[in-house]
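Sanity check

After download, print the first record. It should look like this:
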Amino acid sequence: MAEKLNPWLNALKQLDKAAKAINLDPGYHQILAHPKRVLEVELPVRMDDGSIKVFVGWRVQHNDARGPCKGGIRYHPNTDVDEVKALAMWMTWKTAVVDLPYGGAKGGVRVDPTKLSKAELERLTRRYAYEIAPIIGVDIDIPAPDVYTNPQTMAWIMDTYSMIKGYPEPGVITGKPLELGGSEGREEATARGLQYVTEEAIRVMKIDPKKSKAAIQGYGNAGYFSAKFMHELGMKVVAVSDTKGAIYNPDGLDPDKVLEHKQKTGSVAGFPGSTLLDKDPVKANEKLLELDVDVLIPAAVENVITDKNADNIKARLIVEAANGPTTPEADDILHERGVTIVPDILSNAGGVTVSYYEWIQARTREWWDIETVRKKLRARMAKSFNDVYNMHKELKVDMRTAALALAVKRVVRAMELRGIWP
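Expected structure tokens:
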């Protein structure tokens, strides 16, 4: 389904494009093209059978000119340093484009978490937390969940860090369980933010949601909530998918009932009243991207929209819930065809925005209700969309380049004001 392209090279290409659009000073361009810090750690773990297995992990801090670094931790068998570097750079842009007082970071461990017991995962997580502890902290770098990590993972990291420090520090991590200082609305935050930018996008594009069709690739947290919220807007969600298949119903699917089916059977495939787009799950996911819909939401993995299928995309609006689903080459093709893309660094920034609210709440020990969180999130996402949209019109570039240009400008301005020391 996804092409294996180097995400770090993609990130650098995107930076080059934004730099050209704003005539970026070559010196600052050079700074931004390198992470501030790359930490690689060895993680020996005692397995349940008594053997020792060694895993490799990373924490990359790309830039902290605007504030402490911020970014998730992913557990995946294919994670490597280039992926983590790219994700850290994208976090710098993501926090800047929604104007949070943060920089960008990312963490990763090369592991297949589905093959570890809960006890093994806890030992791996605590070892990783111990190894990166010297470079994280409430005012330094605040991790969060990402692929195959969750509130329980964050609880182990918070506890390990607190044990090292000798006092509880809920602000060192976000995406925690509510009982440990997590925030209301964090689980839905990525897709809720996506809903708010989609509302802004369809407003400026004069798309009537009640006469529109949507397709969502991926049915994890972001995919399910994206489907649910598009359904709530009045859109007909005609197709959704996961790694085991893609289903279609021209009359629309009920996102909650599809979720119930997936929880019972392990996949969206076989949902009553739907048809499979293809018997081969990979081909089915590829076909979903090319359906005749108004709104397409890639909510799975990176590099699924490429120069090979960009000409076949029929959606007028693509809203990226996943990180890096569209390659730079596909961006150019789609822009020329008049397809609007709300880029990942804007459209899926709801997660980091609510993480920021969680961080504030942890620091003040004052907790907000979900309506307060949603109200603040809606205002910030709507303003951020319009900031990017205005930059897109001003520079006469695609929305991704506009978002990157806006973010790069904000980061560089912070570096200019702080100065290059010594």
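If your output differs, re-run the checksum step. Summary of this record's structure: The longest strand covers residues 52-63.
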